[in-house]
Amino acid sequence: MRYFLTSIFLFIMYPAFAQEQYRILKDTTDSNSIVLRTQQISEIEVSARKVFSNIKTGSTGIYIDVKELKKLPNIMGDADPFKALQYMGGISQAGEASANMNVRGGENDQNQILLNGAPVENPTHLLGLFSVFNPDLIDQMTYIKSGIPAEYGGRLSSVIDIKNFAATPTITELAGNLGMIASRLSFKLPITDKFSIYAAHRRSYLGTIVIPLLLKSGIDPKLAQNNFEFWDSNMGFQLRISSATRLSGHFYSGMDIVKVSEKERFSLDDNTSRWGNTVGGLQLNHTFSENFSMVHYLNLSDFKLQSNLNWLNTDYFIHSDKSVLQYKSDFTYLTGQHKIKTGVELSAGKMLPVAVQKQISDTTSSVVAYSQSTDAALYFRDEWEYGPLLINLGLRAAMHISHPDSREQSVFNFSNRNSGKLFYGLEPRIFGRWLLDESSSFKLSAGKYYQYNNRVQLINLGLPLEIFVSASDKIKPSSLWHFSGGYFKTLSESSWEFSAETYYKNFLNLLEFGGNLNDLFVANNIENLLYTGRGYAYGAEFMLRKNAGRFHGWLNYTLGWNFRQFDDINNGQPFQATNDRRHDLSLIGFYNINEKLSISAAFVYATGSRLNLPRSWFIIDSNVVLEFSKYNSFKMPDYHRLDISLNYKLPAWKKLQSELNFSVYNVYNRANPFQVYYSTQSENGKYDFKIKMSYLTPVLPSLSWTFRL
What we know:
By secondary structure, the chain is mostly beta strands. It has a single domain (10-708), classed as TonB-dependent receptor, beta-barrel domain (Maltoporin, Chain A). β33 (551-566) and β34 form a beta hairpin.
């Protein structure tokens, strides 16, 4: 019923006049889609519209048909709807197998990614090759890149809202995948007609099996010298308390381990990083009447990072973590033409921004800092539609309290510690859509957004080496004004779609780490190592999509500019942001050869990201001193890659449905670097210096078997 409601509009003849009816469904966990809307007009016609059609969608974003999205290129045997979002426009993957995701010039930490309402800090495995969301469990997904409604807050750039287990299973389901890269197994089990459970586990073995086989086949060792693995587990339940009330719970835990090991001179000396999310929560849905419903969330989210690395001949151990306890309530009320939604959100966070330990010879020193904060928000929005005009008007009032820090380490001057600070702000949001006719529309949106908690890149190694920073008496909250407009058109009875959008973003109080790892041991406050600046991004996005026929596919192209300006960087002059990628293109296609055999392909191209690398170096008292030119004046090589996938549906055996998938990631073995670094080495009193690139993923063939019982 859910997919039917979001993808089909029924038009039924009545001899008199048109009227609209609304009622609230009792059996749902999605507070954004609890309204059933039927329209009666004076003409007999039954037609269907693809869910990807953006003509009539409102400010609540694009509701993704997960089953349809799983038909997209199936790379490495994992039909991952979250990863497929990167092909849909507006999202730019930062680089080769990068976990970073930049939306319209925003930073990676500015995306609000939710799993069953709970925030997820790092959404990918293997630095971007897989997502943390098990594709067998995803039931609903919403992607919002502009016109973000008032119920979402705390992030600047986008919202990706994913829900597991939204549909109550009526029979036992067992599903899984056996592949060369990773395998997974999941089940859904109705215990009674009111209580059901689910569980899933997934694990990779790329570094232990696949890469060694590739090395034996004669592949360039530079493209296969690293080791990386991941695992994750999910479990949850649903309890139908009554016909109007339902309680559900979920739990997720996962871990990544990456080892970068150059086997040549200028070695990084076996750098190892491990990180993982733990997410859990409860959700209570209740319908009071046909016009009034509520949803309550209680969530816990935790993220931990540990890294061991040798940087400029010094061994470092870096640790950071963040825990958040969150409560949120949503109330929806329908009256006449208006859909009113209001609610409150409360959260308490405890962060370890960074703990660093270094060792030179037999000498060890360390520094630790803790931070705590409380956030609260109240929101109200009203969406109404009059003829061709739809308006969504909202206001969010947010408050952030930073508590006095608890710091451990005498290297800090305690007189400079965070003494606590209160911040508050109003976030007006407005979205408008005008239907030009049944096949075209024009949309405009504007919104103000605040972000009180940030993640700041510590050093640029391609790994998630970041520190958590909360707004305090020394750090102001980041903010953004986002303006967007676009034209949307369907062609040939909706078999083709075209859209053109423009955007402008104005960032304030962005953060940049202004030191190096050694500075952490001499600074009397971490905040003193952070630069504060502003930024602006603008561009245009174009999409052409074919929906009908045996051949499906689309082309997305983004032309964008992204600049930053910091008083303490580049002599105060604006410079290109690290994630400035002038051209970003994705070309996706899949072809149904017959009912059992299909082939798909994905080609991506993006201008190389910007880097700040030294142009020269010299020695003072046996210490290496680096000299830099203009900030971010270096550009990485352009990124491009071709993936192909072949799917074959096997004959059914009793109740077992299955298919074979053969895929090739990086077909022509493009050497896309995932990190660029500089290294020094002393031999017989002589120093050497060199800038090198590290490559993560060569051509990766994969064969997998997916089944459902």
